[in-house]
Amino acid sequence: MKKFWILMIALGLCGRITAMGISPDRADNSAAVVQTDNGLAQLQPAPQPSNLLAPGQQGMPGGRPMPPPSVDEQIKNYVPDDWAKAWGHIHLAEAEKMHKDPGVLFVDARAKAEYDQGHIPGAIPLPLGEFDQYFKKYQSKIKRAKHLVTYCHGANCKLSDKVAQKLYNDKKFHNVSSFFGGWPQWQEHNLPVEVGPEPKSN
User: Fold this and answer.
1) 127 pLDDT exceeds 70?
2) How far apart are CA 91 and CA 179, in angstroms?
3) Could you give the CA distance from residue 137 to residue 195 in angstroms, rounded to a whole number?
4) Contact 102, 178 (CB under 8 A)
5) Helix (H, G, I), strand (E, B) or coil at 31
């Protein structure tokens, strides 16, 4: 007799669910009929999805992906490679301060086409692949500078250190530093930029 009443209640619930526009086969995934201690049937609700992620799981509540880290976060623990430790590596605050000094020359190690689209004001182009050609063109400026600051695409880019290496080792300019936050960090902080094939300032 108990089984009969359980079956009847289950069928009644199934009918009510169908009336609400949910097919019984889908209802099986969202709820279950269980027998309680007193022999009555009871609808057991399905567990609701949580907006909280499991410990250590990447992402945001609701399954949204985490926003990409800022350049500042990416370079927070930056350490130069062993081969690049002979010259200095400067943070954004130092780069800003040095940029205000007319005796400091910024050196853009990116491709010339990228330099033309935008660069730190007063910087000269010195792309690694055409180093000798552009070094010859800007040699007098480089020699007059009291300090040289190379930069490129940021901490994950080695172009600024490669150009600094050539200036330091090959050309014997030991007054060189690498701004490891580079062009991305300069832009992220909305600092002044210059566009064109030649430096206009400094």
Assistant:
1) yes
2) 6
3) 19
4) no
5) strand
